[in-house]
Amino acid sequence: MDVIFDPNRQGAAPGTPPAAAGWIKDGDQKTFMQDVVEASRETPILVDFWATWCGPCKTLTPTLEKVVGAAGGRVKLVKIDIDKNRALVQQLTQLGLPLQSVPTVAAFWQGQIADIFQGALPESDVKKFIEGLLKVAGGQLPTADLLAEAKQAAEEGDHQGALELFGALAQQEPENPEAFAGVARSLAALGEEEQALQVIASLPAKLAAHPEVASVRSGLELAAEGRAAREKLAEFEQRLAADPDDHAARIDLAVALNANDDRTAAVDALLEAIKRDRAWNDEAARKQLLKFFEAWGFADPATLAGRRKLSSLLFR
Questions:
Q1: Under CATH, which number does the domain 19-138 receive?
Q2: Active site residues
Q3: Taking phi first (over 0 means left), then psi (-120 to 50 degrees means alpha), and beta for anything else, what does residue 152 get?
Q4: By the 8 A CB rule, do 75 and 136 touch?
Q5: What per-residue confidence (pLDDT) applies to 137?
Q6: pLDDT at 1 over 50
Q7: Rounded to an integer, what distance in angstroms lies between the CA atom of residue 13 and that of residue 128?
């Protein structure tokens, strides 16, 4: 089966608009009212106050240009050289804008300053800042639309379509854990579990620890364990009939029941094991139950019901 996603390929998706599209421009004190104040009544405007002697500015400005370019015109960037526009800087300082140091970025919406940050933030933080600005303006970044579309495709069972959308998002946002979790989950749904595991294994520790990624990882592990356990379900039941305290058999039975998508019975089996001997094998039954919760997702009805039962058992 051909899969269009390469986890080692990063960078912006083809077609990312260039800065020359009109979303990014150099401004000055003569055009500030038109380019920033008036323009912000229709589109959120970022103003990058910078200087040629400012080292951090050389890092931040390209980051701003990249994120604004990827926003596709939903936010615009105006760059102001403070040394060439001292009168404007003095006027804005008197209005309370902290321009004693650069880089300083001010977000304008509806003719007013909506937010400010100073210093060379990393790309992920710049993106969050812009997301916050767009939220105030009643919008969101195109990548948020892409994520929503990908999730909808997955919910509708279009796993190939979801894979393509999650893959495109991962290319545009290589630090987005939801994108990579979606890629892996879609691959698994298409029967490409080995490739899904490769995607998870390729992620840096920061992304690998994210709950969405951990959920997919646990789901893949449970799927493999479940296939083996499902073939022995009758054997586990016979062992428990002979010895109700065969905790290993009860845990294996729970794994088999989960593989059969009988989540309620799987939870009940583990709760029974915990009730009989919570400490057995370093609390193996409780840990297996938590792994179920992680794989199902913390908002899943079976997880919510199971957590309530577990809490009632442990804290009664």
A1: 3.40.30.10
A2: 54, 57
A3: alpha
A4: no
A5: 85
A6: no
A7: 20
